[in-house]
Each structure stands twice: as C-alpha cells, then as structure tokens.
Amino acid sequence: MKPLSLRWRLVLIGGAAIGLVMALSVTMLAVLFDRHVQRVGVEDLRDRALTLLSGIEPGAQPGQPPRLRDQPRNPAWQRPFSGHYWQVWLGDQVLRSRSLWDEVLPVDPTPPPPGAGRVLTLPGPAGQTLLVLDQQVLIGRGDLAVPVRLLVAEDQDDAAAARAAFLRDLMPWLGGLMVALMLGSFLQVTLGLRPLAQVGAHLDGLAQGRRARLGQDLPAEVAPLADRLDRLLDDRDRELDRARHRAGDLAHGFKTPLQALMGDAQNLRDLGQPQIAASIEQVATVMRRHVDRELARARIRTDAAHARAEIAPAVERVIGVLSRTPAGAGMGWRIDVPPGPSARIDPDDLTEALGALLENALRHARSQVGVALRVQGAHLDLAIRDDGPGVPPAALERLVQRGVRLDESGDGQGIGLAIATEIAEAAGGGLTLANADPGLLVRLRLPLHLSSGVPA
C-alpha cells in the first residue's frame, strides 16, 4: 500500500481535529442552550407562582388556614394535561389546577424552608417530564403568618422542541464553518509545505548540474538538513577523489612490472622459447588491458555539477585525428551533428568516450561511418553507425546484459565499449547497442546541459 503524502496526512489530521472540535462545540452549545432554556423556564415559573400567590389570602380568623380567593384564569391551567400545572397546600387542604385532573404531583413531603425554593424534575401526567418550582412562603403578618407551599410546573417537551429547532438552525452554520476551516487548513498546509517544493527544485538542480550544492537559501526549518546533505556530498567527493587516485596509482604501479614482463617474454623468444614467450605475452596483454581500463575509469569525473561539453566540436576533433590515420584516411565520414547542444559531462570524458566509440566503428566499418545527434527531452542521443558485419545476435544480447563486462565478450570489441559505458553512466546517461543491418549502431545517451542552445 502506497503511503499517503505528507500534505494529505496533515490535511487528514487537521480535518479530524476540526471535526472533533466541531462535535464538542455542538455538544457544549446544546448543553448551554438547555441551561439557558431552563433558566428562562424557571423565571417563567416564578412569574406564574407570583400570579398564583396573588390569589391566596390569610384566613378570616386567626388560626384559620389561608384560602384561595379565586382560581387563576390562565387557560393553560384549565385544559386537562396541558403541560402547565400548579399544586398548593393550604393547611391540610391540597388544591390542584384543573389541568392535573385527578393526578397528584409526586413531590417530597418535606417542603423547602420558608422564603426559599428549589427546582425539580418530576414525572407528570401522560408520561410528561416536568420542570417544577417548589417553594414555601409565609402568608400573613408577624406571628400570625402561616406557611403555604406551592408547586408550579410545566412540561419540558417545549424546551426539547426548542432545543431541536436551535440545533436545526445551528447545523448549517456549523457545517459552513467546518468547510471554511477545512479549506483554511488545506491552504495552510499547502503554503506551509511549499518550501519543500523549493527543496525539490534544488535537488533537481543538483541532479541536472545546475547547482553544485543545495545551499543555504532555504527556510530555516530545512536549512540544517540541506547543510548536512551538502557536507555528505563533500565527503563523498573527497572519498571518490581518494579512490580514483588510489586506482590510478595502483594501475600505474602495474604498468612497469608488465612492461618488464613483456621484455622477459622477448628474451625467452630470443632464447628459442617462443611458446612460453607467447603465453607470457598473452597473459601480460590481458593484464595490460585491465590496467588500461582501470586507468580510464580513474580519470572519469563523477562530479558533473558544473561540467559542460559541446558535442559538435568534440566530434570534429576526434574525427579530425582519426582521419589522419591510415584506416581513417580512406573512410567516408557522414556527420549530422548540429552546433549548439551541450552535454552535462566533463569535456575530457566526452572526448575519451567518443574516441573509443569512433575507433571501434572505424575498426569494423567497410567504407562509411555515420554520426548523428538528436535532442530528446532532457537528453542528447548521439548515434554512431558503421557499415561493417555487426555483431551476432546472441553475442549482442550478452553485450547488453547488466553486469557483463563488454571487453570479456570475446567478439573483438576490446575495452573501448566498456570505457564508453562507464563514462556515460558516470555522467547520468547510458550506452545501447543494436545491429543496423549492415553494421552496428551504438547510441550514446548523455544528459543535456540546460543552458545549452538547442536548435529549433
């Protein structure tokens, strides 16, 4: 499973956080609305309790319980099971609103202290849930004042309906707010990660040779990473230089003993031992080829950050040298290399690769060698073709296999193709072989230097 990109991970995490916050916000708003509705309901019950108390008057004689002068005329208290009720204790007498019909509110028989009240939630008629104000007041003056307990209640279904209506009105606004926050989060993540695109551009420039290092012109958060990568590249270049110098020193160290070995073989030949001399010369020749190849590899530059080589002059120089050789003097050279395009490769490496490939073509051509250059996207395709016998298909397949050394194919290619392949791969390109019928077609693919002039 392909992992999510950093951008989508941050967007999903931000979206989950926003969703959680919005859910908590809805819950808290609902709780706050319920509390507000309850406070408003309690205040309404207090007003109704005052209306009910206004109809209660002290008894006509001392010691007589208070009496309800007149039934309150609120229509909600008259309609049975309307959801609005009252219940009053006048001494031993319990009076109820007509809306209670024959129901009695199940309340704690112990009343609150005189002058105090409490808010209760009680079951009511027809399965209703009631918000109840239970309070006790004193009716009368001085020592003649007597306590009166009264309950005023209303159904909470109205509060639940108001809460549902509030949430219905609130959800579209919260949904719009959530969408706006998600868009803001996406924009924040996009802008926040934009410096990473700058890092990618610097890496592309590094790979294409437009930059030697990542540099410090990056945001402060990624500058330490860029600095460590630059130091790692510096260490790699120093190690490659040391390895190249060691390989060159080792190859040069073998050249003198091999030359001495060739001299000993000649002495054996002079002493009448031609078979032993030929055997020694064959082994020494193979070893010299390996040494020459390692010397060529040691000269290959792997740091092509600022390397640039124009193709046309390099081809002209190499063909000019080969044309002065006996084989090249009578050869027909067909050159189709426009001026301008440059490759991102060291000029000496390009000359060595061209020399190896053109010498190989010259060695096997009958009468003509062709060189053509084409620009393909960010690469240059240099095709070198001869009109010789080509390569047997089975051997050609072996030559292009990954990991097979070209000079060990036994088909007379020498080490030229091996050197050219290693130079091309070190520069970020490659080498391919194909029979052209007649002849062999070699394609040298090199990265295009972006600042080079490319013909339309």
UniProtKB/TrEMBL annotation:
Keyword Acyltransferase among UniProt keywords: no
Listed SUPFAM superfamilies: ATPase domain of HSP90 chaperone/DNA topoisomerase II/histidine kinase, Homodimeric domain of signal transducing histidine kinase
E.C. designation(s): 2.7.13.3
Single annotated GO MF: kinase activity
Catalytic activity annotation: ATP + protein L-histidine = ADP + protein N-phospho-L-histidine
Positions of the Histidine kinase domain: 249-450
Subcellular location: Membrane
SMART domains: HATPase_c
One Pfam family per UniProt: HATPase_c
Leader peptide range in chain numbering: none
Top-level class of the enzyme under EC nomenclature: transferase
Parts of the chain that traverse the membrane: 12-33, 173-193
Alphabetically ordered keywords of this record: Kinase, Membrane, Phosphoprotein, Transferase, Transmembrane, Transmembrane helix
Name of the protein this chain belongs to: histidine kinase
Gene source species: Paracoccus nototheniae
